[in-house]
Amino acid sequence: MTILITGAQGCIGSWVVKNLVERGARPVVYDLTREPRRMRLIMSPEQIAQVTFLEDDVRDLEGLCRAIEEHDITHILHLAALQVPACRENPVRGALINVIGTLNVFEAAKRTGCIQRIVYASSCAVYGRPEEYPSPAPHEALLTPHTHYGVFKVCNEGNARVYWEEDGLSSIGLRPWTVYGPGRDQGLTSAPTKAVKAAVVGREYRIPYGGYNDLQFVDDVAKSFLRCLEVPFEGAAVYNLRGQVVSMAEVIATIEEVVPEAKGLLSHGQGQIPMAYDLDDTPLQREVGDLPRTPLREGIRQTVEVFRRLQAEGRLETTELEA
To answer: Residue 78 sits in which domain range?
Structure first.
C-alpha cells in the first residue's frame, strides 16, 4: 500500500503521517507547501525525512494524476479543505477547493485506474441544529447543513456515491466533530485546543461558544482514517466519527484539573454551534471494528505534555491566541 495524502500539512494529516512513519511506511504528501510546520511539533527530523513532499494544489487535476502515476499510489487519503470560517468568508473559493478539489481526487483515481480505495474527510457539519434530531442522531438522519462548508461536504458525499455506482471507485468518508490536540490551530472548533495552550502559557482565553461538542483526540482520528484505508471494503459509505460529548464548561474544568495553575484564566461563550453533536457511530464500529477513543482528560494531558515540551524548547507558537 502506497498512500497519497492531500492536505497532510494540516492537523489530522500530520498525525496520519506520524503514524505511517512509525509503522515504517513512506507516505507521499500532496499539499500547497512542503513546509512541515505541524509535523515538526510531533515528529523528529529523522522521521520527517522519510516523507515524500509534493508541492501542488488539489485544484490541479493533471498534477494529481501525475503524482499517482509517478509514485505508484494505491490508496488516497483526502483531507485538503478550507474550514467553516474560510468558506463563509469566500464561498466561491471554498467550493473550488472543497468540492472541485474533491472531484479532482476522484477523477484522478478514475483516470489513472490504479487506486484501490479513497478515504476522505466529510464532517459533522452535514447535519443541522441539535434540536432537529433525536439523541443520538441516527446514521441515516436527514442532512440539513446550515453552513456553506456543510453543504459542500454533502455534495462530496453524493459525488463519492456516484463514482462508486458509475465507475466502481470504493470510498469511505468520515465525519469528525471537534478534533483537538497538538497541531490544531485553525477553524472554529480549534478553540478547545487553544484553551489548552493558553493554560500552559498562563494566558486568559475565551472559547467563543458554549453548549456541547463531541471532542475527538487527533491521534484517534488519524488512526481511524488509517483503519478505513486498510479494512476490506467495497462500495461508497460515509460514517459518523464519535469521541466524547461534553459541555464547554466540562472542557474548561478538565483543563484546570490537568493545569491547576490555569484556574480562572479560561471562559466560554453561550451560543451552541448549530450542528448536531450527539451522533450514532454504530455503523462505523460495525464495519471497521473498535476504534481508539481517548478519554478527554488523557487527551488534554497528552496535549499539555507536548505544549510544555515545545515551550521548554522555545518552539511553542502562540500567535493564534491573539486572533
So the answer is: 3-322
